[in-house]
Amino acid sequence: MEAGCLAVTKEPGNCAETRAKGGADGSPVSYVCAMSMVSSRLVLTLPLGALLCGPSLAAGESALAIKGYDPVAYFSLQRATPGVAQYAYEWDELRWQFANAQHRDQFKANPVRYAPQFENFCTVALAMGEVHDANPEYWLIIDDKLYLFGESYGPKVFRKDFKAMLERANKNRVLLPKK
């Protein structure tokens, strides 16, 4: 049995009990009784992350960019606008959603222009050497570039010392998770 996995198996005579055992390397492995219709030798293994982190993406499905918000709307409507799945586009290993087909087409023509500078992450946190998710409701456009922030005060802090913070955020870009 692979360490860090949940094992579900039906052991004859132990159908009503659940017990924990250590794996070969000492990591916990849970054995849980399966339904009586299942073969007594069935073993199902799942990655521990799938159990702890909630639903995962289907095979080949890209992660949702900026929590489904329309990146073009920040520029054209000057507001954070949720996109819809009907107008989705895959780019840079992410699924981008748009409020309408026109925004999707604008993004397709020049995605680098509209994509946030630090993906789905807070610009101020990155400038401080930390990685935190951004909230698409907190944003700022400076020099025709979109920046996202994790807190409502983020845009004000960033604008106050824009050049120094941008330099630090770019230097800390190496901290962002690899795709």
Could you explain how this protein is built, in words?
This protein has 179 residues and is an alpha/beta fold. The chain folds into two domains: 48 residues, no CATH class; 113 residues, no CATH class. Helix content is 26%, strand content 27%. The strands form three sheets. Strands 2-3-1-4 form a four-stranded mixed beta sheet. It has a three-stranded mixed beta sheet with strand order 5-7-6. The protein has a two-stranded antiparallel sheet with strand order 8-9.
Gross morphology is globular
Radius of gyration: 23 Å
Order of adjacent strands in the largest pleated sheet: 2-3-1-4
- Biggest sheet character: 4 strands, mixed
Give the number of domains: 2
Helix content: 25-40%
Give start-end ranges of low-pLDDT stretches: 1-57
Average pLDDT score? 76
Number of β-strand runs: 9
- Our measurement of the CA-to-CA distance between the termini, rounded to an integer number of angstroms, reads 29 Å
Order of helices and strands: EEEEHEHEEHHHEEHH
Structural class: alpha/beta
Please state roughly what percent of the residues sit in beta strands, choosing from under 5%, 5-15%, 15-25%, 25-35%, 35-45% or over 45%. 25-35%
SS element count, helices: 7
